[in-house]
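From the shared-data thread, chain only:
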Amino acid sequence: MSVSADSTSADAPPAARPYDPFIAAMGAVATGVTVVATDGPTGKFAQTVSAMCSVSVNPRLVLVCINSRSPINEAIHANGTFTVNVLGSQHDHVADTFAGRPWPGKDPWDFSCGEWVPAPSGSPRIRDAVASFDCTIHQVVEAGTHQIYIGAVTDVETHSGDPLIYSAQTYAKPLPVPPSVFDDYPGSGPTYRKHTKETTK
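Structure, as tokens:
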């Protein structure tokens, strides 16, 4: 595990913030870490995003939530396309850079922090992302402080590796958990069917 970089001075005390049980509870949620990126006439932009999920398989749709204050919103609307890059455990510095917390010697939102290649739409794609979805805008919904983008997936790329996880202000990677055992229920535990011709009919 590695702790995300703090953008405040080591000598400055953290700013006092009123306790919010909702924020505290959400901080305990483990999420994947993605970077949403776009490129076009308005320029190249990217933003670290933890709120991402699949919406539909047919048609192929994914969802991301981006704070309305982020300058990437205007660019996505203008360009009409974006990528959703699922970060691997080696990409903690990429996550911090595009969250506005660059490591020493780097600038915030600096594309030199990773190896980027163009997706078919022209939007930037992290070359070794665990997964990358190239999208066109399917729908945009404004909700509270955020813009919800539903992207129609036009291209998918995957690579091996451990996905980066974020929880309690700390980065981590997945570890297998042995199944629970209950003495009163011999043989209990998960069962997984193999994908065979018989089971997929």
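Residues 23-172 form a domain with the Pnp Oxidase; Chain A fold (CATH 2.30.110.10).
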